[in-house]
Design a protein that fits this description.
There is one protein chain. With 203 residues, this protein is of the alpha+beta class. The protein has seven helices and seven strands. It has one domain: Muramoyl-pentapeptide Carboxypeptidase, domain 2 (2-Layer Sandwich), CATH 3.30.1380. The strands form two sheets. Strands 2-4-5-7-6 form a five-stranded mixed β-sheet, with helices on one face. Strands 1-3 form a two-stranded antiparallel sheet. 43% of the residues lie in helices and 14% in strands. The chain is globular and about 40 Å long. The two termini are 34 Å apart.
C-alpha cells in the first residue's frame, strides 16, 4: 500500500469524506424502519395511557432528563421513554461522545405517541404519518433524535462515522436530517446482543 493510499484511507476513517449525504434519507427510509419494527414485533404507542402501561410491563424504560453525558431538550415528561436497547445505545454513544469531546449530547426526541405525532404534523408538514407503511418510527419507542446544534465539524464527522458503521452492520437505521438539524436513529433489538459480545471480548 502506497503512502498516498494510506493517507487517503486514514482521511476516510477519520470522517473526512463523510458528509450529510452519507446518511441521507430516501423515499424508502420510513418503509424500511417500519418493516424492521414489524420484524422486531414492536407495538406503536397510541397515547400516554398505553405508554404508561408498556412502562409497567417493562417494555419501555424511563429516560432521565439530564445526565453527565446527555440532556433532553423540550421533551415532555410523558414522552421520556425508550425501548431498553435504545436506552443502552444512548448511554454508550453519549458516554463515548463526552469522553471524546468533553460535552454532553443534546437529545430532542424520544418516544412519540400517535396523539403527539398528530399534533406535530399540524405544526410541521414534513413530520411523518401516524398510520401506514411510512408512519414515524418514534411511535415504537426505538428511535431518538440527536441535535446537531452546538456540534462543530469534528463532532458531526465523528457522529456520521459511528452511526454509519452501526448502520452498515445492521444494528440501527440512521438518517442525518437537514430541515431539522439532527441525527435520527432507530435502534434495532439486536443491538443488545452486539454490545453483549463486545463486553464479553473485553473481559
Amino acid at each position: 500500500m502506497t503512502a498516498w493510499i494510506k493517507l487517503g484511507l486514514a482521511f476516510v476513517l477519520s470522517g473526512g469524506l463523510l458528509s450529510a449525504a452519507s446518511l441521507r434519507a430516501t423515499g424508502e427510509s420510513q418503509i424500511i424502519q417500519n418493516q424492521r419494527a414489524d420484524g422486531d414485533h414492536l407495538s406503536r404507542m397510541e397515547n400516554d395511557t398505553m405508554a404508561a402501561r408498556w412502562k409497567r410491563l417493562q417494555l419501555l424504560t424511563p429516560i432521565a432528563s439530564k445526565t453527565s453525558t446527555y440532556y433532553l431538550h423540550n421533551i415532555p415528561k410523558s414522552s421520556r421513554y425508550l425501548r431498553p436497547w435504545t436506552k443502552l445505545f444512548l448511554s454508550r454513544l453519549s458516554r463515548q461522545y463526552r469522553t471524546r469531546f468533553g460535552k454532553p449530547l443534546r437529545v430532542t426526541s424520544l418516544l412519540r405517541t400517535a396523539e403527539r405525532q398528530k399534533a406535530l404534523r399540524r405544526r410541521n408538514g414534513n413530520a411523518a404519518s401516524v398510520r401506514g407503511p411510512k408512519r414515524s418510527s418514534h411511535l415504537t419507542g426505538a428511535s431518538i433524535d440527536i441535535s446537531k446544534k452546538g456540534m462543530g465539524s469534528a463532532q458531526r464527522a465523528w457522529m456520521r462515522r459511528v452511526l454509519l458503521g452501526l448502520h452498515e452492520k445492521g444494528y440501527l437505521y440512521a438518517i442525518e436530517e437537514n430541515q431539522q438539524p439532527n441525527f435520527h436513529v432507530m435502534v434495532y433489538r439486536g443491538y443488545e446482543d452486539y454490545v453483549a459480545k463486545k463486553v464479553k471480548k473485553t473481559r
